[in-house]
Design brief:
Protocatechuate 4,5-dioxygenase, Chain B, 8-stranded mixed β-sheet, 3-stranded antiparallel β-sheet, about 20% strand, globular
């Protein structure tokens, strides 16, 4: 192991105390590996040295010089072995495992619901009861002067976001009952900027299988190129954003199947300071055009499965956010919501770019694409909330939900009056 230079994969670190020892739980954000490892806090700094450039000997020396922590060779070797066994290192062993997982996913009859039993019940009757309970929290339904064609939905867990989910999806019930296709533009939490990721696999919910609209996927894949379109398809296995939206869509169709187009999208922050604009992105423009044509073909509901800001110590800010901070966040979010209400993708992009995504919008790319596909149409924001992201509510996730609709032309009588 002396010549090994381990490279740690991007992992989720969760503060945790095990038998009075503070430290961190390590999990795979792609949910490919089932393993969870505990690393004590005094050993955790060595993880930052696993960047593919340090040998174990160099890591031990750095730990001693930088942190004053002597690290016995056998302890470090055991940690590296455990990380390797858990598929937490970027190496040939992990890549072979990832390839096997992707092949199994593609060969299966459908994509298994990855968050059933965690975020929502896996049994259909229990799920139906829970969702109906959420929907009963909606006190009144807004009257929209036209048919619904889109839903802006959170992708936070239902426990924290159910009021916003219910407020938005309840307005789309009639449209979903009529729909022959649902297009889901969902946040890919693990994608590089600009990524658009397709799948030909069908999604399943506890109510049954939602078949993927292969004709639309084929058109999109031809526009993007097969290799690029499916480069990150393995992300579909564990990504929750599209799944949580499709459970709501399936519920509001009373469990009846409908063709779906699940698309995962990365952000657009690579355009900041580049002198270029997403309008110039050929791939994104082609996808927007194809989806716009798909909407015109048959009754379709387009969904943006997105959250808004992620702020506070849980997301890297130095101090908890107080009431004044949250008021400023609400004002910043209102700028984004104004662009969404008006159906203005460029105004939305520019509002995020103006702060260089200071508030870490977890839906930047999908919301921009949603607005491109339904450009110019009004959106009614039915609910907006701050959800806690830590026990002290010093870290916040802001969420919003609503529907996009097509205004009906004024009648001759209305025009005369």
């Amino acid at each position: 192991m002396a010549d090994l230079k381990p490279l740690l994969r991007p992992l989720r670190l969760i503060p945790f105390t095990y038998r009075d020892t503070p430290g961190f739980l390590l999990q795979d954000p792609l949910r490919l590996s089932p393993h969870v490892l505990f690393v004590p806090a005094d050993l955790a700094p060595v993880l930052a040295l696993m960047d593919g450039t340090h040998t174990p000997q160099a890591m031990r020396a750095a730990m001693l010089v930088r942190y004053g922590v002597p690290l016995p060779p056998e302890v470090l070797d055991r940690l590296i072995q455990d990380l390797d066994q858990a598929y937490f290192l970027e190496n040939d062993r992990f890549r072979a495992y990832q390839a096997r997982r992707l092949a199994s996913y593609r060969a299966g009859p459908y994509r298994e619901p990855s968050h059933a039993g965690e975020v929502y019940p896996k049994e259909p009757e229990a799920l139906r009861a829970q969702m109906d309970t959420y929907l009963r929290t909606v006190l009144a339904h807004e009257k929209l002067a036209g048919p619904v064609v889109g839903v802006v939905s959170p992708h936070i867990d239902y426990a924290r976001g159910h009021r916003v989910y219910a407020a938005a999806w309840s307005l789309a019930r009639e449209a979903l009952q009529r729909a022959e296709r649902v297009i889901v533009l969902a946040t890919d939490h693990n994608a590089p900027p600009g990524a658009i990721t397709l799948t030909r696999q069908s999604y399943a919910t506890p109510y049954g299988v939602l078949p993927t609209a292969q004709d639309v996927v084929d058109r999109l894949a031809a526009a993007l190129g097969e290799e690029e379109a499916f480069r990150h398809e393995v992300h579909h296995i564990g990504e929750h954003a599209a799944e949580l939206a499709l459970v709501w869509a399936h519920h509001l169709r009373d469990g009846r199947a409908v063709d779906v187009v699940p698309i995962l999208l990365g952000g657009l922050d690579h355009y900041f300071g580049s002198g270029r604009h997403p309008r110039e992105d050929v791939a994104w423009s082609r996808v927007a055009d194809i989806l716009r044509a798909a909407v015109d073909e048959k009754p379709t509901v387009v969904v943006a499965a997105v959250d808004l800001a992620h702020v506070g110590p849980a997301f890297g800010d130095p101090a908890p956010w107080n009431d004044a901070d949250k008021a400023r966040l609400r004002a910043a979010d209102e700028t984004l919501l104004a662009a969404i209400r008006a159906g203005q993708p460029d105004a939305f992009y520019e509002a995020v770019a103006a702060t260089r995504d200071r508030y870490r919008i977890c839906g930047f790319g999908p919301l921009y694409m949603y607005l491109r596909v339904l450009e110019g149409l009004p959106t009614h924001i039915a609910a907006y909330e701050h959800a806690p992201a830590d026990d002290q509510f010093g870290s916040v996730v802001s969420i919003a939900g609503g529907v996009t609709w097509v205004p009906r032309p004024a009648s001759a009588e209305e025009e005369t009056s």
